[in-house]
């Protein structure tokens, strides 16, 4: 045990010396330092240019003007809360039961004749109709609902961001919602006799008197990166109430007005027909991933272009040394000057593969660390300054927590580091700066640019560009459909999963490079060899 300690300590000291030597070699390349400065400049400039030019406006009952601040739900997320509600007050415990016997709708599709609205029959996938209990009619307040959707069966949703799947039903379905204290439970049934629990949730602070009843709402039909008008009409029958026996009240919650200030924009309605209630509504009760304002990650939209100088700096860190030969700081002579190791006698055989591997790893550590700092500086400047510019121009901003802001900033730095290590590994494999740099750009930058234009978003799952998901500042929600475009906040992978893909590529490239990196040129026959150590 004790006899191995000096050797291990010596190896550690040797690697630290190697790191210091590679850091000195990296700094010695003036072109690399200029490239890193250019990376920060490009990333910050593009982000601030976008922030400075962003102007949003909304048409309200007072005419066109600045958009209001986003509506915020119980957990601080921007939310939508627009629906048609047929309800009664419920004091204490109770329940509501009804069958959704029919679900139809209308939605606008692209115009076939310019200027002529093209509306057809149909229901969007996340159209919702069902039973709802909520604290009050004030938008953004806590709620729970069990519902039948257009294409996603029965669901129980609560407090906007939570979604629990039920059965995969798309036909008539019985629903029940019960309230016991602050516990709300949703049920479904095929026949009204045998019931299955969908979910249960405790709504903290639920008052003694709540509003309970039937609702309908329908998010917009997606057109590329925009959403157009849609509404849903649900027929409710077999309606039963326990604990409430008043008269029905009718409210179009969250309806907006036309510019005249009096005409509702896409109003809902409810019609009583015998023992049936036919309820029509539009809007949504859920997260506002697009409508909630501009996102912090838009400030990093220039980050892909800003990574190009970082990738090239990492490539030249390897290839420039190889061009200098074994007397430089490349990989072809681990015992060369500048690598922190003692030079061998003239004519001696250079170090073997383990030493060359240590040299490559040291270069990767230096390149990754430098890229991390560069990414941290760029994101640390452009995100807060860009958001300040957006607010100064009265743009609505998606709420962002401190933790999310730190993850976006540090995440972009981690992405920069992983991309730099990937580029370095490719350079060590290919030995040609132009080829390695072009391949790194094709793998990391090009897929991001294509996805930003709404093209081939699946590339963000299978290429190193997946790591850009770590900069996502607005979560993706399974119960909200968004257009497959980065401009709409779409990332096919969660933040940390996307970064893991990029890191996986970097580790693979570096590992492959260590396997093919020669330990140096063997001494030619007739030349002197170094004596054994």
Brief characterization of the structure:
The chain is an alpha+beta fold and 533 residues long. It contains nine helices and 22 strands.
Task: Outline the secondary-structure elements.
Blueprint: H1 5-28, H2 30-53, E1 58-60, E2 63-65, E3 79-91, E4 94-109, E5 118-121, E6 128-134, E7 143-149, E8 154-158, E9 162-165, E10 173-180, E11 183-189, E12 196-202, E13 209-217, E14 221-223, E15 226-228, E16 230-242, E17 249-253, E18 256-257, E19 264-265, E20 269-273, E21 276-281, E22 284-287, H3 303-324, H4 353-392, H5 402-430, H6 433-444, H7 446-452, H8 459-462, H9 495-516
Antiparallel strand pairs: 1-2, 3-13, 3-17, 3-22, 4-5, 4-10, 4-16, 6-7, 6-13, 7-8, 8-9, 10-11, 11-12, 14-15, 16-21, 18-19, 20-21
Question: Characteristics of this structure?
Answer:
single chain; 533 residues; alpha+beta; eight-stranded antiparallel β-sheet; 22 strands; 35% helix; disordered C terminus
Q: How does the helix and strand content classify structurally? A: alpha+beta
Mean pLDDT: 87
Helix content: 25-40%
**Low confidence ranges:** 323-329, 332-351, 520-533
Shape: elongated
The beta-strand count equals 22
Q: What share of residues are in beta strands?
A: 25-35%
Instruction: Report the C-alpha radius of gyration, rounded.
Output: 31 Å
N/C terminus separation: 23 Å
Output the number of helix runs: 9
Instruction: Characterize the main sheet.
Output: 8 strands, antiparallel
